[in-house]
Amino acid sequence: MTFATHWQACPTPTAPKHLNATFVRAETATINTMFAPLQNDTFLRACLRESTAHTPVWLMRQAGRYLAEYRETRAKAGSFMGLATNTDFATEVTLQPLERFPLDAAILFSDILTVPDAMGLGLSFAIGEGPKFAKVVRDEAAVSALAVPDMAKLQYVFDAVTSIRKALNGRVPLIGFSGSPWTLGCYMVEGAGSSDYRLVKTLMYQRPDLMHRILTINADSVAAYLNAQIEAGAQAVMIFDSWGGVLADAEFKSFSLAYTQRVLSKIHKTFNGETIPSIVFTKGGGLWMSEMQSLDCNVLGMDWSVNLAKARAQLGATHALQGNLDPNVLFASPEQVTEQARAVLDSFGQPHQGDGKGPTHIFNLGHGISQFTPPENVAVLVEAVHSHSKAMRQK
Amino acid sequence: MTFATHWQACPTPTAPKHLNATFVRAETATINTMFAPLQNDTFLRACLRESTAHTPVWLMRQAGRYLAEYRETRAKAGSFMGLATNTDFATEVTLQPLERFPLDAAILFSDILTVPDAMGLGLSFAIGEGPKFAKVVRDEAAVSALAVPDMAKLQYVFDAVTSIRKALNGRVPLIGFSGSPWTLGCYMVEGAGSSDYRLVKTLMYQRPDLMHRILTINADSVAAYLNAQIEAGAQAVMIFDSWGGVLADAEFKSFSLAYTQRVLSKIHKTFNGETIPSIVFTKGGGLWMSEMQSLDCNVLGMDWSVNLAKARAQLGATHALQGNLDPNVLFASPEQVTEQARAVLDSFGQPHQGDGKGPTHIFNLGHGISQFTPPENVAVLVEAVHSHSKAMRQK
User: pTM of the predicted model, to two decimals?
Assistant: First the structure.
């Protein structure tokens, strides 16, 4: 079964394409009988640089170990992959943070490494350790054996997307995601996380031809994967270039950015008449702002090292900005959390108001939330972002 | 014994201060009967933005595990600290890379964490692991107990400096160094390396007052430590802000940069009539170029993520630039090493030529050399830097 026919056979929403492909979420949702109409479109509007009544907020890794209820579900599932591959469990944990906090978006519960797993590399997570692959890709033979995986192997992800979107019942939009081609490549060559990226960089510097072949396959796989998530119900997609920042300047452009752009050039910009915003987050990529500005995406994610005022001044209004509180702020007192959240909002400054498009901000952490975070400080954070960003708009 | 009287009692070079405090190395070295005259001043001249016949090159961690002779000496010493605290061993390993490669500078063999060790925190290195401290500084009581250490506890470092300078016999200049106040603070709070800096950032966000107290003590300790190294014979000093890059934008300025500047404001700019250049290297600090430009140092070190052409354009000629080849390039073929070394030189472009001062470049890696590096590729690198940088000057 080819990729295309597989997708034709899938139980994804197939409402007729809206004639006017502009951003008409409400109407489309009515047409689309599979999912409830969206009640809170703040996140999607901010992604598209439209005005909102407050600055939307969600947190990378918001469904995770800092929540007791997550740890309970995780224990029932037996393993991380047991959790990610079970539709009910994945749905349950995705919604857990929304039960506690008035977040403005949900993000699919999954891992960035599902795609290389589907390529046959054998992903596993040992307790207390990071991800590991049973097979690694370090030579010509291993590279030759690589191919865009049959998306049927990732059906569990798409089923989770559809299930979560239904369970959300229109409360907030659902974000799908993938690792970037380069970030997936790092893990595929190293076989695990790394402190120096010696193996993947050795391959990159010694055999750039092989590295480019891996990255081309990764980019095409990620594009197919994100498109399938969109077809299954994802309302926005995010590409995590978690390891782009470890590259040298020239190599970042040719081995990371170029393949992120290849993904962006292949993914759905609209689906079922709805605009599907895309977000690119390069951890440690702050000094390549002007290079990233060339990306055909809607939002650029920033880690905490970036000054949002400077980034906004540099970028103008080509992209919305997402970020960028240091997750470690959440270990301070509630008053300090509030103060730091306000500082991030003030650093971005007044977002676009009124009609048309202009500079907008989506509040987030600069990286994933720590497993040791006190959940009560997350409540404080979300409240601070909502109230301060509303107050800013009154000025 | 106070710090000052201790230093008056030390057997450091005490040649009369040259009346004209400009850069008059050759004459001063003659005055100074303790050390031989300097034969290769390329590195020092480039630090001071003076023209040189070639671009000087040295490598961070050039005396290290990638050399078989280092591993032999290390085995004799029994432990890393056994190596660092023994004057003969420290001298031997510092000179080892110079026996193999025509490097333009030597750097004291030591560790960045000797200062907190002298504060009584108990530094050790387990085989195959990073540094560990027996005591940590995480609360008010531990911070209250901190003080600038008696420099007598670091006498082994200053003895090594004098011994190495003598053994160098004027071949190339000797660089002394220290960790930055912030980087030392990271280890003092965390007790070891960290992947998320949760403990030190928790303290910083919760109790900025305590963090500032630690950093003030660290800055004053580092200044005393570097001054003592200069008095013992170091001809340039480098501050390694290895963990400055993990900070958020505002916190980098107040918790890292401000204390690096405090050190710089207190260290000898000249000694015995010789100008003592200072280098600041912030790993991951490329996006704070304009902030770092305010530092009262001679050279800014850059990691590989920085585009040297852009950095030069941004900085003008206020500071010499040092860097920035990705150490992983040294795992490629000799031809590729040569090509990448040339690309770094070409990226900086033609350095200042003729009289006066202008933009200059000191070639280095963007971080320490890997223990797995084939030494023959280091020979290729040094040759490529020397020959290509000479050829560039003929254009």
Answer: 0.91
